Amino acid sequence: MPLIETKQLAKKYGQDETTVQALYPLDLTINENEFLAIVGPSGSGKSTLLQLLGGLDTPSSGKVTIEGQDLYAMNERERSIFRRRNFGFIFQSFNLIPILTAEENITMPLLLDGKKPDLTYLRELSRKLGIEERLHHLPGQLSGGQQQRVAIARALSGKPKIVFADEPTGNLDTRIGEEVLDLLIESVREFGKTLIVITHDPKVAERASSVLNIVDGRIMEGARQ
Ligand code: ADP
Ligand code: ADP
């Protein structure tokens, strides 16, 4: 069974004359351990697709199944629990909670899920990401690269099956972005499983196991390797 499957998945925003067809009906299969890069021009539907796959939005039609479980047949509460147990998210703007320390940000998803943090695992993860000396800092006391490394640790803290990242290096300068990306790829390989990344960076796409090129809400034929 594929890890993720979409059937005629589509998304329209707005009504009547203001309608935007952000995603046209899409059948897609993503296997376990894939590293999928989603590329395409701005406004082409990349974030829409990522949010639908990650259970953060609702489709206009069609469905998304994760190991056979229909994501949008669940109610909001069930889907939110499912997301916390199975998915990790990384955003361009880090989205850390400013009044919590790095460590508290990292363990927050576990606490919300009523799980006891696996301290050995979290220590290993922090060491891998080079943030073990920064765990008691607030996000505002950290550089952008450090904040994104904390966000990666948070995304991986619950040992998710799938990590979703929307332009994870978009707010970082080139060199720092490359370092953070290396760490993201290595940590997902080591501690997570499947990685789905939106990127404008051809270097990121080169490293992916497959590439999905979206233009105006449609997948370009032959773009997926
Ligand atoms: P990308 O991530 O490739 O930049 P998006 O998925 O954000 O593209 O957007 C695809 C299209 O849908 C764009 O035309 C965008 O303006 C539109 N869109 C995205 N989100 C919304 C929304 N919440 N309401 C209305 N239109 C939206
Ligand atoms: P990205 O950098 O990922 O392409 P965008 O700037 O396109 O992100 O969109 C950021 C957020 O704003 C997304 O969650 C998207 O759904 C929403 N959004 C994008 N376009 C619109 C729009 N025209 N109206 C309302 N929300 C939008």
From TrEMBL:
CDD domains: ABC_MJ0796_LolCDE_FtsE. Belongs to the ABC transporter superfamily. This is Peptide ABC transporter ATP-binding protein. InterPro entries: AAA+_ATPase (IPR003593), ABC_transporter-like_ATP-bd (IPR003439), ABC_transporter-like_CS (IPR017871), MacB-like_ATP-bd (IPR017911), P-loop_NTPase (IPR027417). GO terms for molecular function: ATP binding; ATP hydrolysis activity; transmembrane transporter activity. Pfam families: ABC_tran. GO terms for cellular component: membrane protein complex. Keywords: ATP-binding, Nucleotide-binding, Transport. Transmembrane segments: none annotated. SMART domains: AAA. The keyword Transport applies. Residues 4-225 form the ABC transporter domain.
